[in-house]
Amino acid sequence: MKKILTVASVVLTFSAAAQKINTKQIIREAEQQTLLLLKETEAIRVAKPNLVAPRTYEHGELKLVPSRDWTSGFFAGELWMLYAFTKNKIWQQQAEKYTALLEQEKWNAGTHDMGFKMYCSYGTGYALTKDTAYKNVLIRSAKTLASRFHPKVGAIRSWDHHKEVWQFPVIIDNMMNLELLFAATRLTGDSSFYNIAVSHANTTLKNHFRSDNSSFHVIDYDTLTGAVLQKNTHQGHAHTSAWARGQAWGLYGYTMCYRETKDPTYLQQAEKIAAFFFSHPNLPEDAVPYWDFNAPDIPNAPRDASAAAVMASGLYELSGYSKNGKQYRKYADKIMSSLMKYYRSPIGENKGFILVHSTGNLPSNGEIDVPINYADYYFLEALGRREK
Length: 388
Ligand code: GLY
Hints:
Blueprint: H1 7-17, H2 23-45, E1 51-58, E2 61-66, H3 74-86, H4 89-100, H5 114-129, H6 132-146, E3 149-150, E4 155-156, E5 169-171, H7 178-188, H8 192-207, E6 218-221, E7 228-232, H9 244-261, H10 264-278, H11 305-319, H12 325-342, H13 373-387
Antiparallel strand pairs: 1-2, 3-4, 5-6, 6-7
Helix pairs in contact: 1-12, 2-3, 3-4, 3-5, 3-13, 5-6, 5-7, 6-7, 7-8, 9-10, 9-11, 11-12, 11-13, 12-13
Bound molecules: glycine.
Glycine binds next to loops.
C-alpha cells in the first residue's frame, strides 16, 4: 500500500534516528569493502589499463570506466577520503595512483563533467596535500571547463550528444561542476572563473525551477537569443516529473554556491529544494527516494541511494548556513541511518562497493537498483561533513 507521510510524521521519525551513526565502525567496514574493490579493479586493469575506475556492479559484472567517463573521479576521491579518515598511508598511495590516471582529462573540452571528474579527485587530493602539481591540474581543468561557457546563454553547455534534439542543453547536474570554477578563482586570483560560475547559477535559477521548487532535468537554449527552447528530462520519468538525483544535485549545488558567494538567493533556493524533497508525499519513510518522485509504479519503483547520499552531504553543509540548520541535520542523519542500516552491502559482497540500491539511468534501462561509485563517494563525504 502506498505510504503517505505528513511533514510532522517525517520530523518525528527523523529525530529518533539521529544518534545511531557510528562513524568509526562504518569507516572500518568501508575500508574492508574498498580493499576488495581495489583488488577486483586491479585484476581487470591488468588486461585493460585504459580503464581507470570501478563504476558499478551490474548483471554480475564489475564495470570499469575510462577517464573520459563522468564518474571516473569518484573512486580516487573515495581513496582520498579514506586517507583523510584513517591517515593510513596505503590509502594515500592508492589515491595518488588513481588520481594520476585521470590527468589527461584536464584537456577534455567535450564535456561539462570536469568538476565531477577532477574536483572530486584532484580537488580532494589538493585539499589534503597542497601538492602544487594538483593545483596546476585543477587550474588547467577549470580553463577547459570555462571554454564551454556561452555568454549569450549565460551558462556552460552540458552535453554535445543529441545535437538533433537540443541546441544548447544545460542539465541541473551541471551545478556540481561550478565548485571547480570557484576553486580556480581562489587558486589564481582570476575572477573570470567565479563570474562564469555565478552566471551559470543565475541562469539555472531562472529557468530550471518550477513553482513547486522541483527542477527540470534539461533546459535547451537558443544560442543566438539566449531564449529557452525546451524544458525536458533525459534520465527522469517525464519532462514534468521530479527526477530524484536532479533534486539532490540542485540542493548540493546551491548550498555550495552560497558558501562561495554568500548570495542569500542561493541559500533560499537550497532551502526551497529541501522543502520540496522532505514534504513530498512520495518520499518513503526511510527518506531514501524512489528514482523519480513521480515514477508511475511507486511504491514498487526502484530507489536511488545515490540521490539520498548526495542529499545528505548537501544537507550537512546547508545545516551550517541556515536558520533551519537543526532540522536539516536531522534530515541528513535520518538518510544516513537508513543508508547505513538498509542500503549497505554485506562485507565481501558486491565486489566491494559500499552502498547498494542506486539507480543511474532507468529510462535507458541502465544501472537499475545497483551499487554505483558516486553513491559511495557522497556517502563518505557526508560522513566526513557530519563529523565536522
Ligand atoms: N549526470 C549525472 C547523473 O547521472 O546524475
